[in-house]
């Protein structure tokens, strides 16, 4: 969560810690879009918000930059999206287009990742790094709007706390932005000033040909956002490019025996620091592995065609439900 501008209980200001590596990668990505003359004006259309980028082209542009993205993908992805938004705003000529671009969130879809990681090879070492996995879709969930950045109103002093990043659950501000207000729990979401994106969950399992003899197929939950949603159906065999992440299992927090935080105890000690995950308790934390995908490709399709960017191309015979 971005805690820039949030005030500590002692009265001092907690400044945002800069990430020089992320800022440098953001600048390199903006230079790449400019030098390669990639047309980003199509993202100004209301239904578009995702730019497809080839990892091989990034490697040809700057090999170290490409390797840095592959290693620290989850850390650098927000900087790449921020750089893309700046380029789009720069290319928006009309005032109306500029206002539309400012109100939108933009995303990157990486493709043409050479190596494929098997589902049973995914472990905690690969969390946050770029990976490409293959599997058969066994279940798809309906599309829902996901809150990605919230603006909250303090119910005690009516102060506004903007740009609160969500941590795969409904995340409140750590503390009110008003230096004389110590509210930590009483906030209201301002829907009009918050950012939402299309969100869908997909469950895949190992392909029969990759399954070791005598083993049960393992399954994995895939998280799709933006234009990647509704790009696959049960029975499809697809490649997913993204990263392995750890998300809180919100459903398990309500089961008996799980310690919950006591909201009435917050704010009793004025000298306590900022603390995250305050709604999860301290003894029992439930997490699970998921795969956050930025690109969906039909397995075996020539040229690694993006399903959601090219709905009429690529491997219809591979996507026939069994």
Please outline what is shown here.
It contains 5 helices and 12 strands. The protein has helices at 20-35, 55-61, 63-71, 73-91, 95-102, and strands at residues 6-7, 13-14, 50-54, 107-111, 130-140, 144-154, 160-165, 187-189, 195-205, 219-225, 237-248, 287-298. The protein has a domain at 19-112: mini-chromosome maintenance (MCM) complex, chain A, domain 1.
Structure overview:
It is a single chain. The chain has 322 residues and is of the alpha+beta class. The protein has a domain at 19-112: mini-chromosome maintenance (MCM) complex, chain A, domain 1, CATH 3.30.1640. It is 18% helix and 27% strand. The protein has helices at 20-35, 55-61, 63-71, 73-91, 95-102; strands spanning 6-7, 13-14, 50-54, 107-111, 130-140, 144-154, 160-165, 187-189, 195-205, 219-225, 237-248, 287-298. It has a 5-stranded mixed barrel with strand order 5-9-10-12-11. Strands 1-2 form a two-stranded antiparallel sheet. A hairpin with a 5-residue loop joins strand 1 (6-7) and strand 2 (13-14). The radius of gyration is 21 Å and the shape is globular. It starts with 5 loop residues before the first strand and ends in a 24-residue tail after the last strand. The model is unreliable at 1-13, 270-274 and 308-322 (pLDDT under 50).
